[in-house]
């Protein structure tokens, strides 16, 4: 059973999809191997200007991903801070494990960006 | 928007004929069957008539029918009641890995209390292997319990052969026929069934009533204690109206069996054929002839089953991801695991179960909604495009 907020977001996720040639991209699979999510980030001058997700997951996780993608836009990638309470308040229900699983995926996507930046700096040097 | 119900293996709607049969009992014949006065006697008479009718449909004697509150209770009574009553004969029970949770959890209870239980594997279509049954059955085996038709796959087991094997070793044979009853003539004498579970709400009867058939001569202990109801085998005030509705549902199911089976087979074949045509990359699980055609288990590659179920529900189509009794659990269905489905396929599986009241128009509407929903979910699935690319590469 899902909250009305979850069902509303799940019915029409605004941030579903994939950014072509994203600066940061990562995939994550949850511990019991029942959900798979991917975040792709457009990052310009260290600011996340766009975020998209793709998922094979239940409606709650899809709603969490869509909420996170909305929350992180226009935030600085290297100072990104997300917590479950922020997301919980948007969704009306809380599953800390699922939320953390999605947050971890965003962090992996940011790490991917940071690593790419580091490689690019080395190449230039 | 009219809703379309494709979850008849979970429960069915109450038939108008059944309701009509129940109404006088609900309104006028309210006596307690245990009472000596006329109110009690009148209630007792309709329960006796119902018992006679149900017994007749399976070629049993009336005193072999024990009414319960559900199929789950009847299954629990069969497993625990028979195991306890026959403890002096042995302590070994054989069942399968795809049984209803009421069987599996009753077996686990017995294991915690000194019994030994063998859970038979099944093949990819959900059939038990006779070689396994022959290998594990032994002199201490007191009970073999194998379901008639599986609630998630529809696979129908060869009950006669299982009964024969059980009897050759002196074991009692129980079958959970909750899904099968009403779809196939079940003559307990002819098949060799010693105990059998039936439930009313799967055959357009009321919820809250089922029964356990136990052949005369088979010992069974009560699991619910109370008065002398059900000849001392099941305490609790008799659910008179429920039992009358149950009997009426049994009568109708047997009366209309041929017509319903014909309709359900044609409707199900139409559904599967159109679905396969309209939606690519799907797998029909247990796509065999020896099954209930109306239970259709489908894996949609790259789609989460729960998300698809929710999307269909939001668009007015009711289905389920597995049995209703386990659908609140996030774990992959034990039935899908037992038939060897990979985790990806198991979590993308939906059960459609058609009923006698579904129409071709409903099926066409549902198919369009299914296609649209699957397309929408696949459009942003993190695994679908990768999988399809891999499949193309494999070729």
Describe this structure in words.
The complex is a heterodimer of chains A (125) and B (395). Chain A has 125 residues and is an alpha+beta fold. Chain A has a single domain (4-115), classed as Sufe protein. Chain: A (Alpha-Beta Complex). Chain A has four helices and three strands; from the N terminus they run H-E-E-E-H-H-H. Chain A has helices at 4-11, 59-72, 84-91, 96-124, and strands spanning 24-29, 36-44, 47-56. Chain A has a three-stranded antiparallel β-sheet with strand order 1-2-3, covered by helices on one side. With 395 residues, chain B is an alpha/beta fold. Helices cover 42% and strands 13% of the residues of chain B. Chain B has 14 helices and twelve strands. Chain B has helices at 16-27, 38-57, 71-85, 101-111, 130-136, 159-168, 188-191, 240-255, 257-278, 305-314, 334-338, 343-346, 360-379, 384-394; strands at residues 4-5, 65-68, 92-96, 116-120, 141-145, 172-176, 195-199, 210-214, 282-285, 295-300, 317-318, 349-353. In chain B, the strands form three sheets. Chain B has a seven-stranded mixed β-sheet with strand order 2-8-7-6-5-3-4, sandwiched between helices. In chain B, strands 9-10-12 form a three-stranded antiparallel β-sheet. A two-stranded parallel ribbon of chain B has the order 1-11. In chain B, helix 1 runs antiparallel to helix 8 (240-255) and helix 9 (257-278) runs parallel beside helix 13. Chain B is globular and about 70 Å long. Mean pLDDT of chain B is 94; it is low at 323-329.
């Amino acid at each position: 059973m899902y909250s009305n907020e979850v069902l509303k977001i799940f019915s029409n996720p605004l941030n579903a999809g994939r950014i072509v040639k994203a600066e940061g991209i990562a995939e994550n699979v949850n511990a019991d191997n029942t959900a798979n999510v991917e975040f792709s980030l457009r990052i310009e001058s260290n600011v996340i200007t766009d975020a998209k997700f793709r998922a094979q997951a239940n409606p709650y996780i899809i709603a969490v991903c869509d909420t996170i993608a909305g929350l992180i836009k226009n935030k600085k990638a290297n100072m990104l801070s997300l917590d479950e309470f922020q997301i919980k308040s948007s969704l009306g229900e809380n599953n800390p494990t699922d939320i953390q699983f999605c947050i971890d995926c965003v962090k992996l996507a940011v790490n991917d960006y940071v690593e790419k930046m580091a490689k690019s700096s080395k190449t230039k040097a | 928007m009219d809703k379309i119900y494709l979850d008849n293996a979970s429960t069915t709607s109450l038939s108008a004929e059944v309701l009509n049969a129940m109404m006088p009992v609900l309104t006028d014949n309210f006596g307690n069957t245990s009472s000596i006065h006329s109110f009690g006697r009148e209630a007792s008479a309709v329960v006796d008539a119902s018992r006679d009718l149900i017994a007749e449909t399976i070629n049993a004697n009336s005193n072999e029918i024990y009414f319960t509150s559900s199929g789950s209770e009847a299954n629990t009574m069969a497993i625990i009641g028979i195991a306890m009553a026959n403890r002096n004969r042995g302590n070994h029970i054989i069942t399968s890995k795809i049984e209803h949770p009421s069987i599996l959890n009753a077996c686990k209870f017995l294991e915690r209390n000194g019994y030994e239980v063998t859970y038979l594997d099944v093949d990819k279509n959900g059939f038990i292997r006779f070689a396994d049954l022959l290998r594990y059955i032994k002199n201490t085996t007191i009970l073999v319990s194998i379901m008639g038709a599986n609630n998630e796959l529809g696979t129908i087991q060869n009950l006669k052969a299982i009964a024969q094997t059980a009897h050759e070793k002196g074991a009692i044979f129980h079958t959970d026929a909750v899904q099968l009853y009403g779809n196939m003539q079940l003559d307990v004498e002819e098949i060799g069934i010693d105990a059998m579970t039936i439930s009313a709400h799967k055959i357009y009867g009321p919820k809250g009533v089922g029964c356990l058939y136990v052949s005369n001569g088979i010992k069974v202990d009560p699991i619910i204690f109370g008065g002398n109801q059900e000849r001392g085998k099941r305490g609790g005030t008799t659910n008179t109206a429920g039992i009358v509705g149950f009997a009426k549902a049994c009568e109708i199911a047997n009366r209309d069996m041929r017509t319903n089976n014909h309709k359900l087979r044609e409707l199900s074949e139409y559904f599967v054929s159109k679905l396969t045509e309209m939606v690519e990359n799907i797998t029909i699980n247990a796509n065999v002839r020896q099954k209930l055609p109306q239970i259709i288990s489908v894996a949609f590659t790259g789609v989460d089953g729960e998300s698809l179920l929710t999307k269909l529900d939001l668009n007015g189509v009711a289905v389920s991801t597995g049995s209703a009794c386990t659908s609140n659990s996030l774990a992959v269905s034990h039935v899908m695991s037992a038939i060897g489905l990979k985790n990806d396929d198991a979590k993308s599986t939906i059960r459609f179960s058609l009923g006698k009241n579904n129409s071709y128009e409903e099926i066409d509407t549902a198919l369009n909604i299914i296609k649209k929903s699957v397309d929408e979910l696949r459009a942003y699935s993190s695994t679908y495009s990768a999988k399809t690319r891999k499949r193309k590469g494999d070729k």
